[in-house]
Design a protein that fits this description.
The complex is a heterodimer of chains A (about 260) and B (about 300).
Chain A: E1 6-15, E2 19-29, E3 34-38, H1 45-52, E4 61-70, E5 73-74, H2 80-85, E6 88-91, H3 103-114, H4 118-131, H5 133-137, H6 148-160, E7 166-170, H7 178-195, E8 198-203, H8 206-212, E9 215-220, E10 223-229, H9 230-235, H10 237-243, H11 248-255
Parallel strand pairs in A: 3-8, 3-9, 6-7, 7-8
Antiparallel strand pairs in A: 1-2, 1-4, 4-5, 9-10
Helix pairs in contact in A: 3-4, 3-6, 8-11
Chain B: H1 3-34, H2 41-57, H3 62-85, H4 93-115, E1 130-133, E2 136-139, H5 140-162, H6 164-174, H7 176-182, H8 186-212, H9 221-232, H10 237-257, H11 259-262, H12 270-281
Antiparallel strand pairs in B: 1-2
The chains are: A alpha/beta (about 260), B mainly alpha (about 300).
C-alpha cells in the first residue's frame, strides 16, 4: 500500500494553562479517501483539525506531543500558509466568511493563500462557480447577505480556490437544514469522486458523515475511542449507541438513503 | 449674525480637523489589522518630524531628506511589529496597549538622544497666512493640508479596494483567524501596515511640525486623536476622517462662539467632552463596526 497522505502519530493538544483537549491520537488517511471524524461537542475534533492546520497557536493552544506527516513531510512546525500552498486546506467550523467582502472577493482570498497567478485565480473562480452555481449569481454581493447554506458553500469554495489535495472540514452541516446539508455532502462526494479530492470530515451529524465516508474515527474526551471502515462501525450496536447516540436500525436506514 | 464669518469659522474648523484625521488614520490602519491600539503613533510622528528636520538642517535637499526619513520610518514600523508586537501575539489588548505606551517613551527618548532637545523650525515653503476668499479668510497652509490628507485617503482607498494587498488587508481586518486559515501571510500584512503607518506619521509630523514647530509636545497630538477615534470609530478610515473633521469643527465653533462667555480655553477639553458623549450614546463611534460574530 502506498504511503498515507496524512499521518497523525500520537498527537496531544494542550490549551493554556493546562487543558488537555486531545490525547494520544493516531490515524492515517490515504489519497482519495473520505474519512469521518465523529464525536460529541468538546470531544476534540476541532482541536485535532487545528493541530493539523497549525492553527493552535492562534487559539492559545499547542501540540504538546506527536508528529504530523503530510505527503511524506513532517509538518507540525510548518506555518499555515505554507500548508495551504501545498494543498492542505481547512474549512473552519462556523464558516468564517469575510462578511464585509463580496462573494467573489472572499473566493479570491483563497487564491491569495495559494499565491495563484491572476490567470489561475480566474480559472479557479470559474470552476468554483460551476461547483456552486448559486454563488455566481451573488458574486458581487457582500458575503454577509448570504444564507447560512450559501456561506458554507462560500467557505468551501474559498478553500477550493487553493486547489486542495486534502480538504479538512469542520462541521460543514452545522446549523443547516437537512436538505441543504445533504446538498453540501453530495457536492463534497462529487469532488472526491471526480477530482480525487481527499477529505477529512469532522461531524456531529454521524448519520450523514458515515453515509459518505469510507472510514471513520470516533473521538471521546480527546481520545480515539474506535475507528475503522464505516461498514464495520455501522454493524456495531455498542458503538452506535454509546458514541453516536444512535440506534442501529435508524442509522442503517438513514445511511442507505 | 455675520454669515461669512460663520462660514469662515466652519471652514477653518474643518481644516483644523483634517490635521487630527491625519494622525487618526495611522491609528486605524494598525488597529484594524492587528487589534493594537498603537499609543506610539504620536511619538512616531515626532520621531519622523525630528528626523526630517535634522536631516534637512544638515543640508540635505527636501526630497532626499523626505525619502530617507520615509525609509527610516518604514523600517521603524516594521521593527516595532517584529520585535515588540509579534512576540506578544494573542496577549490581551491591555498588554499590547501597555507595550505601545512603553514604546512611545522609548521612541521619544531615542529621538531626543539622537537629535537633541531643541525646538526646530520647519518651513515647507507654504505660507501659513490667511487668504481672503470672498471675504472669508482661509489659510493657504490649511488648504494644502486638506489636499495632502485627501490624496492619502484617495490612494489608500484605491489600494484597499483594487489591489491584492488591499484585499488581504481587508480580509485580515475583518477576521484574523479566517485570514490565517485561508493562507494569508499575516506577518507580511502587519509589516506593510506598520510601514504605511510610518509614512502617515511622517506626513502628519511634517504638517504639524510646520505649524507648531518641531518639538516634543508634538507627540501629544496622540492625545487629541483619541477623541477623534472615539467619535469616528476605532476601526474605520472614513470614521477617522469624519471624526477628525467633527472634532476640529466643534473645537473651533465652541472656542469662537461659547469661549468668550466662559473665558476661553474651551478647545482644550471640548473634544473629550464630545468623545464622552459619544461613548454614552454610540460607543462604537459613527462608523465603527459592530462586532459581527456567528456562534
Amino acid at each position: 500500500m502506498a504511503a498515507p497522505l496524512l499521518e497523525l502519530e500520537r498527537l496531544s493538544v494542550v490549551y493554556e494553562p493546562a487543558i488537555l483537549a486531545v490525547e494520544d491520537v493516531s490515524f492515517s488517511i490515504w489519497k482519495g479517501e473520505i474519512v469521518a471524524l465523529l464525536g460529541a461537542n468538546g470531544a476534540g475534533k476541532t482541536s485535532l483539525l487545528r493541530a493539523i492546520s497549525n492553527l493552535l497557536r492562534a487559539k492559545r493552544g499547542r501540540l504538546s506531543k506527536g508528529h504530523i506527516i503530510y505527503d511524506g513531510q513532517r509538518v507540525e512546525r510548518v506555518p499555515t500558509h505554507r500548508l495551504v500552498e501545498t494543498g492542505l486546506v481547512q474549512v473552519l467550523e462556523g464558516r468564517h466568511c469575510f462578511l464585509f467582502l463580496t462573494v467573489e472577493e472572499n473566493l479570491l482570498t483563497g487564491a491569495l493563500g495559494r499565491r495563484s497567478s491572476r490567470g489561475d485565480a480566474k480559472d479557479d473562480l470559474g470552476r468554483v462557480y460551476e461547483v456552486f452555481p448559486s454563488l455566481k449569481a451573488k458574486a458581487k454581493q457582500p458575503a454577509g447577505l448570504l444564507s447560512g447554506g450559501q456561506q458554507q458553500m462560500l467557505a468551501i469554495g474559498r478553500a477550493l480556490m487553493a486547489r486542495p489535495n486534502l480538504l479538512l472540514l469542520d462541521e460543514p452541516s452545522m446549523g443547516l437544514a437537512p436538505l441543504l446539508a445533504a446538498e453540501i455532502f453530495e457536492t463534497l462526494a462529487k469532488l472526491n469522486r471526480d477530482d480525487g479530492l481527499t477529505i477529512l470530515l469532522a461531524e456531529q451529524n454521524a448519520a450523514s458523515a458515515l453515509h459518505y465516508a469510507s472510514r471513520a474515527f470516533v473521538l471521546e474526551n480527546g481520545r480515539l475511542a474506535s475507528g475503522g471502515p464505516t461498514a464495520d462501525l455501522l454493524a456495531r450496536d455498542d458503538i452506535l449507541s454509546a458514541y453516536l447516540g444512535l440506534v442501529s436500525e435508524k442509522i442503517v436506514e438513514t445511511a442507505s438513503i | 449674525m455675520d454669515w461669512s464669518f460663520l462660514i469662515g469659522v466652519v471652514i477653518s474648523g474643518l481644516l483644523a480637523g483634517v490635521m487630527y484625521s491625519l494622525v487618526a488614520i495611522g491609528f486605524v490602519l494598525i488597529y484594524k489589522t492587528s487589534g493594537v491600539l498603537n499609543f506610539a503613533q504620536g511619538s512616531m510622528l515626532l520621531f519622523a518630524a525630528l528626523t526630517f528636520v535634522s536631516l534637512h538642517e544638515e543640508g540635505l535637499p527636501f526630497w532626499i531628506a523626505f525619502v530617507l526619513t520615509l525609509a527610516i520610518m518604514v523600517l521603524l514600523g516594521v521593527l516595532i511589529e517584529k520585535i515588540v508586537l509579534r512576540p506578544l501575539i494573542n496577549q490581551p489588548p491591555i498588554t499590547l496597549f501597555m507595550a505601545t505606551l512603553g514604546l512611545s517613551y522609548i521612541i521619544e527618548g531615542g529621538a531626543q538622544f539622537v537629535w537633541g532637545t531643541q525646538v526646530h523650525q520647519l518651513d515647507l515653503g507654504i505660507a501659513d497666512v490667511p487668504l481672503p476668499l470672498n471675504s472669508i479668510l482661509i489659510s493657504q497652509f490649511d488648504i494644502f493640508c486638506a489636499g495632502v490628507a485627501g490624496a492619502i485617503v484617495a490612494v489608500l482607498g484605491v489600494v484597499l479596494q483594487y489591489t491584492r494587498v488591499g484585499l488581504a488587508f481587508r480580509a485580515a481586518a475583518f477576521d484574523q483567524y479566517a485570514a490565517l486559515n485561508t493562507g494569508l501571510r499575516l506577518p507580511r500584512i502587519w509589516a506593510i501596515t506598520w510601514g504605511v503607518a510610518g509614512f502617515i506619521a511622517l506626513v502628519g509630523g511634517l504638517l504639524w511640525g510646520a505649524r507648531t514647530g518641531v518639538q516634543f509636545s508634538l507627540s501629544l497630538v496622540v492625545l487629541k486623536s483619541l477623541p477623534v477615534l472615539v467619535v469616528g470609530g476605532f476601526d474605520s478610515i472614513i470614521g477617522a476622517i469624519v471624526g477628525g473633521l467633527l472634532v476640529g469643527l466643534t473645537e473651533t465653533l465652541m472656542e469662537v462662539y461659547v469661549g468668550p462667555f466662559i473665558g476661553g480655553g474651551i478647545d482644550q477639553w471640548i473634544a473629550y467632552a464630545l468623545a464622552l458623549a459619544f461613548l454614552l450614546i454610540k460607543p462604537t463611534g459613527l462608523f465603527g463596526q459592530r462586532s459581527v460574530e456567528r456562534v
